[in-house]
Design brief:
Helix 8 runs antiparallel to helix 11. This protein has one domain. The chain contains 13 helices and no strands. By secondary structure, the chain is mostly helical.
Length: 260
């Protein structure tokens, strides 16, 4: 069964790499700033949210400057948001490939998730510059970002498989996705600390798998204790979401070319 999940990565590496490169190049083609958009996008959001939530609404973030606290949560969220938004459209946008070429269709949503990870990678370098600017140490615990990133990818692949397949059958899904992500962001500790969540709702709040992931990123960067219970929930839910998304995608795959 594991082999079936990995077929696109093991036997279609060239196709996957070409799709990833095409997405990266096409995203910034004929734009004035070009690849600078990779860091410009999170910077603009950082400035807006920093002003709103550190000047108008002030949150207590212990000894960490709010802009750094925000940036650590914002980077994985932007990766999550942009990947799912693009994944919902990936089968529709590649209708010619679906009709003419035989290959595992999951290669398409996979390529979106992995191409967007390039943006996250370069944004993390920007985060390192910010940490040095604010004279904050970069601890060894920062390497825990790697397993957290893998966990986030598993969750995103499952959601991407489901959304891309669902949008092929019902085109409203692309609009629902944007609305869902807007609500999901405010149900995730991206712009505010988890300490603001009432204690009696915390168990329900942590059922959101992005809670454990984003809090994990912050614990890794700021070298604070990890919330093992929320991370474990994120692991279980992310794997379940991937399995369900993969099953739904493969079940509908045989008719993709007919309805695209």
């Amino acid at each position: 069964m594991l082999r079936q999940f990995l077929i696109p990565l093991l036997y279609y590496k060239y196709l996957s790499s070409q799709l990833i490169l095409r997405d990266i190049k096409g995203r910034y083609k004929q734009s004035i700033l070009g690849y600078a958009w990779i860091v410009f996008n999170p910077l603009v959001q950082l400035l807006v949210y920093s002003f709103v939530f550190s000047v108008i609404f002030k949150f207590e973030t212990n000894e960490v400057p709010y802009s750094i606290f925000l940036f650590v949560g914002l980077l994985p969220w932007i990766y999550f948001q942009t990947s799912l938004t693009a994944s919902a459209l990936v089968l529709v946008d590649n209708s010619n490939l679906l009709k003419k070429v035989s290959f595992p269709r999951e290669v398409l949503p996979y390529s979106i998730v992995f191409s967007k990870s390039v943006d996250l990678f370069f944004s993390l370098f920007l985060l390192a510059i910010f940490l040095m600017f604010f004279k904050l140490p970069i601890p060894l615990s920062v390497f825990y970002i790697i397993p957290l990133f893998i966990l986030q990818v598993i969750l995103m692949l499952g959601l991407s498989l489901f959304l891309s397949a669902a949008n092929l059958f019902y085109r409203d899904i692309q609009y629902v996705t944007n609305l869902m992500l807007l609500m999901w962001m405010y149900l995730t500790p991206v712009v505010y600390p988890i300490s603001l969540v009432p204690e009696n709702y915390l168990w329900l709040y942590k059922l959101n798998p992005m809670v454990g992931i984003i809090e994990g990123y912050r614990s890794a960067v700021f070298n604070t204790s990890f919330d093992s219970s929320s991370i474990l929930l994120s692991v279980l839910i992310s794997i379940s979401v991937f399995l369900i998304g993969f099953f739904i995608f493969k079940k509908g795959e045989r008719v993709f070319a007919d309805i695209v």
